[in-house]
Amino acid sequence: MMPKVHVYSVLAAFALVATTGHAQTLTGARAQKSPQADAFLAYEKALIAGGLDAARPYMTPAKREELEGMIKTWGEEGFQQFLDRMRGGAQGAARRQQIQKVDVKGEHAVLEARDSPHTITEQHLDQTKEGWKVGVRP
Fold first, then answer.
1. Tens digit of pLDDT for each residue in 14-55?
2. Structure confidence at residue 20 (pLDDT)
3. 92-96, long-range: CB within 8 Å, 24+ apart, which pairs?
4. Where are the beta strands (DSSP E) in the chain?
5. Which end of the chain, C or N, has fewer beta carbons within 10 A?
6. What is the pLDDT of residue 21?
7. What span, in angstroms and rounded, lies between the C-alpha atoms of 73 and 84?
8. Is 82 helix (H, G, I), strand (E, B) or coil?
9. SS3 category, 13
10. Alpha-carbon distance 68 to 59, whole Å?
11. Rounded to the nearest 10 degrees, how much is the dihedral formed by the CA atoms of 53, 54, 60, 61?
């Protein structure tokens, strides 16, 4: 009977590790230098510089649909105001410093960047065959 208990405890431990093995939280420099941060920053840079078409390589089709929905709701002028607000915020190395945390769970991640003392941007990302891309909340 004793060997069976040992086998079951080993299997239970393996199951626990298997289900939690892909979940991790990155903070500070680890979050700022993560592949998810790189994807987020590339997306923002492209969106600010060239608009929706320029940002296409850095986002999922679902994110593109979400942004196209914003344009339909706010109009082209409203979308340009949204981009202008983004342009007024931190960019490049300063924006990277604002990244505080990345929660990674398998092929999905949530990045948090502190825009100001009372404002946090929460961005969802998905791992695709091309790498990490900005996505939408599942």
1. 444 444 457 999 999 999 999 999 999 999 999 999 999 999
2. 47
3. 92/41, 92/45, 95/41, 95/44, 96/32, 96/37, 96/41
4. 23-27, 99-105, 108-116, 119-128, 131-134
5. N
6. 53
7. 17
8. helix
9. helix
10. 12
11. 10
Global pTM reads 0.83
Tokens, residue 68? 């196209």
Under DSSP, is residue 5 helix (H, G, I), strand (E, B) or coil?
helix
* Bridge partner list, 119: 116
What is the rounded CA–CA span in Å between residue 9 and residue 111? 35
Q: From residue 20, give the alpha-carbon distance in Å to each of 11, 23, 112, 123, 126.
A: 14, 5, 21, 22, 18
The overall average pLDDT reported for the chain is 89
Strands of 23-27's sheet in order across? 23-27, 99-105, 108-116, 119-128, 131-134
Q: Which two tokens stand for residue 114?
A: 């502190």
Q: Is 125 exposed, middle or buried (0-12, 13-18, 19+ CB in 10 A)?
A: buried
Q: Backbone phi, then psi, for 134, in 5-degree steps? A: -70, 130
pLDDT(130) > 50 = yes
